[in-house]
Amino acid sequence: MATARVGRPATRSAPRQQPAEVEATPRPAGRYDWPLLVFVIILVLVGLEVVFSATFALSISEHESVTHYLQLQATWAALGFGLMFITARLDYRFWRAVCPILVVGAIGILIAVLIPGLGQANYGASRWLKLGPLPALQPSEFVKLAVIVGLATWLSGPKYRMTDLYRGMGPLLLFLGAVTFLIMKEPDMGTTLVVVLTAATMLFLSGVSSQYLLMVAAGGLAGGFALINSAGYRSERLQSFLDPWADPSGLGFHIIQLLIAMGSGGLLGLGPGASRQKFFYVPSAQTDGIFAILSEEVGFVGGVIVIALFAAVIYRGARIAQRVPDRFGTLLGMGIVSWLAFQTLINLGGITRTIPLTGIPLPFLSYGGSALAATLAAVGILLSISRSIPVTPAATDRES
Prior knowledge:
The protein is mainly alpha-helical. Helices cover 64% and strands 3% of the residues. It has one domain (49-388). Strand 2 (119-122) and strand 3 (125-129) form a beta hairpin.
């Protein structure tokens, strides 16, 4: 009789299972939001091309050089990308640590602009700061970023800051009031409007009491009405907005020439460099009127594509801000996104006669070194925030 050999049963060990909570634990991605960077680079390159087109006649007339303004803008673009590289490499929480320095510095530099000998006046406004051989800076462009950092830091602190008037909202509103007052002393109503709208958006997103939002809204409306009636040129801009054809060669000349430029482009445009309105018809064609020259050259289709690029930048920025795990990062990111969005909408609204002209530049496209450098530095902060967005291992595997 055969005897069955008794041995140790063969067993196949099951693969070790990782706990579900371990697999779902997020870890930092450590990667930049490359689509955001690509969209911004495209807009800057488009801006350089249209600045050259809009200024070559002016460059020859004033400086006997075809590329004078292009060279200046390209230099500022290089400086701006350098600032972007630095702010992208810095941990965005660094700005929370240096917030007091930025807040005090913002007030100080706005005061310095108003001091004779330091501030430089052009076209009836003292908005520039000239220090020795350095190029003139427009401090209010960098103050926008300082205000956003200050609000994000304050609103991400203890909860009493959003409910207590004396220890919370009082100091915050005092700071905003000082900044807007100093900017209006330059005067610069367009920048003031962007700062107020950005601040109101951040207050709303932070969940402050509705009574404080109403206070900001009421103060902004009252201040805006008073400012419009306090200076003749603001009332004239309002009149030209309501009926530019009532005085086509005077008050309405600017907006009419902008509309002619955009209408002349038709569906596909006259071609790159072929704008006719840039030959001293559109005032400030290279700054706040840059989109009209662009639309004349690339038409309705090209204009829509550029607007789509702005929308993509705003979408990517908002997506970054919504996904960052901490409150400070969310408020900081949404503040930057709101700044870019409001400034774009106000510029395009003025050119298309949707709202009165305010004279603020179009981000990334308009000629102006301070504005370009400040916005690129802000984009660098968004890129820094994007590196801290947590992702699950499964998402990381899908992306790689």
